[in-house]
Design a protein that fits this description.
By secondary structure, the protein is an alpha/beta fold. The chain is built from 11 helices and 10 strands. The protein has a 5-stranded mixed sheet, with helices on both faces. α2 packs parallel to α3. The C terminus is likely disordered. It binds 5'-O-[(R)-(carboxyoxy)(hydroxy)phosphoryl]adenosine and zinc ion (ZN). Zinc ion binds next to α4.
């Protein structure tokens, strides 16, 4: 089954063609980073307008690179939420229209589930269920038990800022530009992670939830003491110390979840899963604890449409279909099966 995936939940307009939920035939991403950079973050109104301009050319390019057309693909999968509603509506309206004119089956997919589906693309043959997945991005920090390709249970989530959001806000405060994660990652390589002792918020002993706002405030307060006069080596040390606190917290929680769920496999996905130190530390801790840690390549960790097509494949295979009244949603629902609750069984469409 060849699926056209469409993603427009934030500041990337993306389309991809994926065969049988695992073979990437094309994966096109048009980033809006340059557009939003000067504002220090994503401006929702501008993002939606840019999606309107980019979406059809991006879909055309994805089909062309895959050697396919709307006549040869079998189905469409599109991000339904969570995300910026104006942006989601662009992708959703295009997906519905294409599916309608071509009488194609289609499905609306949860963006967080799609991040997990990057694991199916990158590590399909080495995946054994159940496993624990951490989705760590600019908008989300959530932990799941993944029981089957369509069954995931939420184990914990951030109570305030997402980890990537903390990276972006700290970088903005240091004048390092947007998005901040990559810059902090680079600077931290030359810095001392033990230079400043920033807090690790682990909440109660058995909690699998996260909180990054205390850490973010601690870094911002520390930065204020310099009144803007820090040397390059001080910036590197602060970046390394902040990053170490985030990585320590994520590692502790994910390993706690793996032990509690008695699983031997952990997957890390989302933009922050590209982080060099995070990958290093998880690989080491995993080895020490007898847990295999897998990360999709960076191009599948950040927002893309191949993961959307891979996610959609499994729901479509179960006979689920989107209906023409399906709407976008902005927030994550902490429902036990959040990915099934927004799509309708075939009998109702
Ligand atoms: O998954 P993604 O592309 O979009 C969302 O769904 O949010 O993630 C973007 C986030 C941004 O906050 C960015 O700063 C962060 O991922 N990020 C990183 C790295 N690369 C991207 N954070 C830390 N280290 C990185 N290397
Ligand atoms: Zn994302």
């Amino acid at each position: 089954m060849k699926i056209l995936g469409i993603e427009s939940s934030c500041d990337e307009t993306a389309a991809a063609v994926v065969g049988d939920g695992r073979e990437i035939l094309s994966n096109v991403v048009a980033s809006q980073v340059d557009l939003h950079k000067k504002y220090g973050g994503v401006v929702p109104e501008l993002a939606s307008r840019k999606h309107v301009e980019a979406i059809l050319p991006v879909i055309d390019e994805a089909l062309e690179r895959a050697g396919e057309s709307l006549e040869t693909i079998d189905a469409i999968a599109v991000t339904q939420g969570p995300g910026l509603v104006g942006s989601l509506l662009v992708g959703l309206a295009v997906a519905k229209s294409l599916a309608y004119v071509r009488s194609l089956p289609w499905i609306g997919v949860n963006h967080i589930y799609s991040h997990v589906a990057a694991m199916f693309l990158a590590h399909g043959s080495s995946l054994c269920f159940p496993f624990v997945a951490l989705v760590v991005s600019g908008g989300h920090t959530s932990l799941f038990r993944v029981s089957t390709p369509t069954q995931m249970t939420l184990l914990g989530r951030t109570l305030d800022d997402a980890a990537g959001e903390a990276f972006d806000k700290v970088a903005k405060f240091m004048g390092l530009g947007y998005p901040g994660g990559v810059v902090i990652d680079r600077l931290a390589r030359e810095g001392n992670p033990a230079a400043v002792s920033f807090p690790r918020t682990l909440l109660e002993a058995d909690s699998l939830d996260f909180s990054f706002s205390g850490l973010k405030t601690a870094v911002l307060n520390h930065l204020k003491e310099f009144e803007g006069n820090f040397s390059v080596s001080q910036i590197r040390d602060i970046a390394a110390s902040f990053q170490e606190a985030v990585v320590d917290t994520l590692t502790a929680k994910v390993m706690r979840a793996a032990r509690r769920e008695k699983v031997k496999l952990v997957g890390l996905v989302g933009g922050v899963a590209c982080n060099t130190r995070l990958r290093e530390k998880f690989a080491r801790e995993g080895e020490a604890g007898g847990i295999t840690v897998l990360f999709p390549p960076p191009s599948l960790c950040t927002d893309n449409a191949a993961m959307v097509a891979a996610a959609g494949y499994h729901f479509l295979k179960e006979g689920r279909r989107g209906g023409l009244s399906l709407n976008a949603y902005s927030r994550f629902s902490a429902d036990k099966q959040p990915f099934l609750s927004q799509s309708t069984p075939r009998s109702q469409t």
